[in-house]
Amino acid sequence: MPSRKKRKRDRRRAEATASSSRTHGGWGNGLPVDRGDLLLVRRAIRYGWPVPPEVRQAVVDDLCASFDKCNEDDRFAMAVCRTVIAMEGENQALEHAEQDRTWATDSPPTASG
């Protein structure tokens, strides 16, 4: 069991989070996106975490909706750019893998002479 001091600290953190105006309710719920959320998306892309298609679409929709915030915060704008680049890179990697599988299953070309 954790010490009394640690339990008290954890309880204060939980109370502060519960009364916070920023709630974490997932993508597509109209909640503001911050850099931590974008970092989590990039981590999910990098490690290949399984993401349902409806959540993927919600992430893209929230990214598009957050472009207005990019004019106010340069660091947020860079985070959005990094996330979009990571998403595009993953899409290209998946397309190349699909092409390789398709070409591997096609019959080899015959030499005509």
Automatic annotation (TrEMBL):
Sequence segments annotated as region (Disordered): 1-31, 92-113
Segments of skewed composition (Polar residues): 104-113
Bias (Basic and acidic residues) ranges: 93-103
Top-level taxonomic group: Bacteria
Composition bias type Basic residues, residue spans: 1-11
Protein name: Uncharacterized protein
Organism: Adhaeretor mobilis
Lineage of producing organism: Bacteria, Pseudomonadati, Planctomycetota, Planctomycetia, Pirellulales
